[in-house]
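Re: folding output
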Amino acid sequence: MAETLTLHEDPRSGNCYKIRLTAALLGLPLATRAYDIMQGETRTPAFLARVNANGRIPVLQIGDGAGARFLPESNAACWYLAHGSHLIPADRFGEADCLRWMFFEQYNHEPNVATLRFWLRFVGEANLSPEQRAQIMPKRAGGEAALRLIDEHLAAHAFFCGAGVTLADIALFAYTHVAGEGGFGLGDYPHVRAWIARVQALPGFVAMD
């Protein structure tokens, strides 16, 4: 991949980490530009006009200067980086199955596990609004349901799709391995813990900041 790649990120974000981990496992050079979302740095007029009108990160910048292109959404950016690589299954069903788990991560897993991590570790429960506090228990139940499902799947599979690591693993690894920061006890999910160790042992693995 000849283009210059720059990740606009907050290093504390699991969604940003997915992209860094994808690039690392593929040996792709990736520059980074850090923003503090707690300080509103992705809501400035310059960011909204140049990087992402939605005011969110991660954003993968492809190229430099006037010809640069900007790709928001973590799983889309991972897919761009991994296109044609071993991280996307070569067969039609395997590719769709990989996408299935990536959609599951964004719809069932991330809204619960990642949200509680953000609220409890970075915002602080005392600073949550009454509406947010009312959502803690439903989100905990939703996160536990997602973790149970993936633990059951991993009881019979070393990785999520096929025999080796794919983007499905990267997408789910990002917030699963730090789920304890959101109050989820990974001690209840032995197959998830074994899978986390397998991902961490992959050549090229980089840890989350």
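--- second protein (sequence, then structure) ---
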Amino acid sequence: MARSKSSKQWLKEHFDDSYVKRSQDEGYRSRASYKLLEIQEKDRLITPGMTVVDLGAAPGGWSQVAAQLVGDGGKVLASDILPIDSITNVTFVQGDFSDHAILNELLEHLGGAVADLVISDMAPNMSGVKEIDQPQAMYLAELALEMARFALKPGATLLVKVFQGAGFDAYRKQLQASFKVVKSRKPGASRPRSRETYLLAAGFKGDLSHGF
């Protein structure tokens, strides 16, 4: 099947991307690893010994970074509907965590412990139609917040990808209701033309309300 002009343009941009080349040279699974590394450099959100939950983990770039940072004394629990190749010191659960069976499996792997950090780089398969893509993206952000309310200990942190557009301001207010501080982050590895941004919500208040 012939590739469309836009598809060819995306492929050229992708393979010319300096972060793609760095990920290949430095052994990271995706260019997305550098988004987390840049936020980490600024905010020091991951420290040795932490328990981290990574939502929408495939292909494993963020889990890989998190596992390196928490070290042998920490724990990384990852989940995605897609499979990923195994990563040292990462426990992976495949499935939709809004499904009670998958949620219970994730919580069982936490072993009664509570997480220090939930990270989510989840995004829908983009159609290019904002009226379709934006509600789907915000729904995934809502799921990340609900999971955080299950898994986080008081004082802990959520890092979640969101997209500027309908529902963004209301979602930020939800975060402000459950966390003491909410900051926006746009790492250099995030393409400038992308509407994606990251909200870093720190100081979880222990709000256990949820919608699962």
